[in-house]
Structures are given as structure tokens and as C-alpha cells.
Amino acid sequence: MAKASLDKKPFDVATMFDDVGEKYDLTNTVLTGGLDRAWRRRTRERLDLKPGEKVLDLAAGTAVSTVELQKSGAWCVACDFSQGMLEAGRHRDVPKVVGDGMQLPFADDTFDAVTITYGLRNIHDFRAGLREMARVTRPGGRLTVNEFSTPVVPVFGTVYKQYLMRLLPQVARVVSSNPEAYEYLADSIREWPDQEGLAREINRNGWTDAGWQNLTFGIVAMHSAVKP
Hints:
228 residues; alpha/beta; Rossmann fold
């Protein structure tokens, strides 16, 4: 399989995720050693959602993240480009909408908060995606972006890169319904901007006061911002 590029073809990405939907939740739990659950909880806590608020969970996949957000009492909708991923989460009782992150099917100023978890890398033009998320968020509304990032402990970072290059694809071959997709994901993680670089992009594309919190030594960074 070819190395990943940040210049992604939308149809190819949607097809790839259609193929992994069946075992997506299991694969994520195995590949992260169960840390995915804690990361989802931290996202809900960081957004500080209130009952009755409207929340967009973009790139929601099987809607497991949406269910976590819904524990706050907020009204949450799962939106994803891959119909197959949403179908794999059909048993989860949350609203689900198929939508392109660069052309969201929602009106201006609809949501009090928007979040995207490990999906910003997969939007064809992630900067356009950030601007589109800002469009559908009310002034003063919040953004939280969870993405794989750059480990901040040098020795740990070396081990992590070896995991991405060697172990992750091998584990995915055992537990995933489309292991080649995880080779793409490993490549895209390595090409992604670091914490400071992504904060700059967020601030340049519809948001302000972007900052971040590292999770698990920077394997994941949780960026937050506000719509001016």
C-alpha cells in the first residue's frame, strides 16, 4: 500500500472507513491498550458540557464517542463521512447524520460545542474543515480536537514511532477487518503537525485562543479553542 499523504481523496477515505467499521471499536481498544476509553472521557470533561446544549461530534465513526458526550445531558449528534461506520454503530441510540467535514449539513451558529476525535487528519482539506466547524458553531462556542500527536519524552517517542511503523500494522492484521487501513493511519499520524503547529492552524481558521493538553506523554493532544 502506498504511503499516506495529507492530500487525501475523500472517496478513498470514506471507502476505507466503510471497510473497517465492523471491528473498529475492538481494534481501537486493542491498539491503544484500552486508553481510548479514558481519552473519550477526558474529551467530555474538557468540553464542560451542560444539559440541553447542542453538540456536534464530527468524524464520530460508530458513535461510541457520541454516547460518551451524551452522558453530560447535552443533545449530541454523530456526523461522519462514512455511512458504513455509522451503520456499524446503529445500536447506539444517538442521532446520526452522514456528512462531509468540508460541507457540513447544518445551519450557521447551530451548536454550542463541536468536537472531532482522530478524524481531522482524514478530512481532505483539514483547514477548510476547521472553518466549517466554526461556521456551524455559535459565537463563544467551544471546539475540542483530539488527535495523535508528537510524544514529548524523547526516548518514549522513539519507542512510539517503532510501534507505529512495525507493531501497529501487525496487530491490525489480527484484529481489524481491513488491516491495510491501519498502515495508512500510521503513515498519516507520522505526517501530522505537532502540538504547536496544529494550534496555529486552528487559530488561523475560524477559532481563537487555541491551546492543548498532552495525554499519555503526547501520544494524543487535546486541543481546545473558542469561536470569536
